[in-house]
Write a structure and sequence with these properties.
2% helix; 3 domains; mainly beta; Jelly Rolls
């Protein structure tokens, strides 16, 4: 069926909709090999299973192996700075670590909300994705006896806002995004003895899906009407669906492109196409970007749903 759709796209007029989505659907790769292992374990089926010792030795064909993974995704805040990465955040903008507003705060990478700085570790950079028109509210609280400053930067390395209070007073920036894409914050050590642990929060207020000034509806019947073009949108844990609709004539081709790879780091959304009767006719569920063509067999308002992956409500 895919080949039939693709073969028709050069012969029919196309309705082209491009959706560039930003949001927080973190793909977290988890898993490591065990460092200490044992050999000659007997299972219930009577077969022996083998481990390798600290990476020594080789796997042998026709044998089963157990690879133990102690605590692959720790929830212990003691070992997860900065921002849950278990390592120091980037010391400059190109090495910023991604964080994910609107997601669970569970100390996995990008979903932690603390970090550390000292006189020998003076900079922590983070990045996150925002839609044009959303308000960024970033707050950082230094520990007692330390002074840390805060600034907000564009992807073009232009500082647009800063907070430089004295002492351990919390630093807060509120700024409305002037473009859709990646934004950066720089946390800077000013003074303090030893290593100081700060906490931070980042909130994105408001939405501007498809330049509507609001959130796209969560149901098909209330879908936001679009004309062919390119649009930005936003979904997160608390807003898992966005619905859009567009008028199509019978015989026209529908070409929908969903992009997020270049504007929302390690984020994935899925895409579905529904005919005017509300019947699901196509699903685009590739990792990262989706792109499909479909021939409209009936006239009317066709609709697409963008949803968050892995799907906070579809469990």
């Amino acid at each position: 069926m895919n080949n039939q759709r693709d073969s028709k796209k050069s012969r029919i007029e196309a309705v082209v909709i491009a959706l560039l989505f930003i949001g927080t659907a973190l793909i977290v790769p988890v898993g490591t090999f065990a460092k200490n292992a044992q050999t000659n374990k007997i299972t219930n089926d009577g077969l022996k299973n083998y481990y390798t010792e600290d990476g020594q030795g080789t796997f042998i064909l026709d044998r089963s192996y157990y690879l133990q993974d102690p605590n692959p995704a720790s929830m212990n805040t003691a070992d997860n700075d900065d921002a849950g990465y278990k390592k120091d955040s980037g010391i400059d903008q190109p090495r910023a670590l991604a964080i994910y507003p609107g997601e669970l705060i569970d100390e996995t990478p990008g979903r932690g909300r603390s970090g550390k700085m000292s006189s020998t570790d003076t900079s922590d950079w983070y990045l996150f994705s925002v839609c044009q028109g959303q308000q960024i509210v970033f707050t950082m609280t230094p520990p007692s006896g330390f002074d840390f400053d805060l600034s907000l930067w564009t992807a073009s390395s232009v500082m647009v806002a800063s907070s430089n209070n004295t002492g351990s007073t919390p630093e807060t920036i509120s700024y409305t995004a002037t473009y859709s894409g990646k934004w950066y914050v720089w946390l800077k050590y000013v003074s303090g003895t030893g290593t100081g642990k700060y906490t931070f929060s980042v909130v994105l207020n408001g939405q501007n899906d498809a330049n509507s000034g609001t959130d796209a509806p969560n149901t098909r019947t209330a879908a936001l009407l679009l004309t062919p073009g390119t649009y930005f949108g936003f979904v997160d844990m608390n807003d898992p669906y966005d619905w859009y609709k567009f008028q199509v004539s019978a015989g026209q081709g529908i070409h929908v492109i969903l992009k997020m790879k270049d504007i929302a780091y390690l984020t994935d959304f899925d895409l579905q196409l529904y005919n005017p009767d509300g019947t699901l006719v196509y699903e685009g569920n590739q990792y990262y970007d989706d792109d499909f063509n479909y021939p409209a067999d009936v006239a009317g308002q066709w609709s697409v749903r963008v949803d968050i992956f892995p799907g906070w409500v579809d469990v």
